Amino acid sequence: MSVAAISSERADNHDNDWTQRLVLFLRVMAVLSVIKGLYHWAQITGFIGGEDDAFESQAMAWQTATVYFAVIELVAAVGLWLATPWGAVVWLTTVVSMAVIELMFPAIYGGSLVIVSIEALLLAAYLALAWMAARERPP
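Below the sequence we write its predicted structure tokens.
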């Protein structure tokens, strides 16, 4: 392999730094989505919590939201891990949904501003990385 080929490979790797960071971010979000999805499934199945926290004894709104997040978080995780556009869209849907539920329906999960702040921070990080990755592509 010639020196020119090696330096060309290094240049190509540096040309896609933001894209690589975006993919790494998406993979980390995929792992977090799997954890969140499994947590919701553990709530549904009764794997975690006591009799007072049983799925059947919760309000219908809580049950509905928990089933929704149990399914959509795992779907988002698959799409994020594969770094597909639909994965990012589904993940964005989960982020916005959780923030809306926390802010507008505090009776369901408690209305935690910490959760909303974390979701907003993750959304901002994704948008910044996606923007920087889009800028490094040739026109």
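Confidence is low (pLDDT under 50) at residues 1-11.
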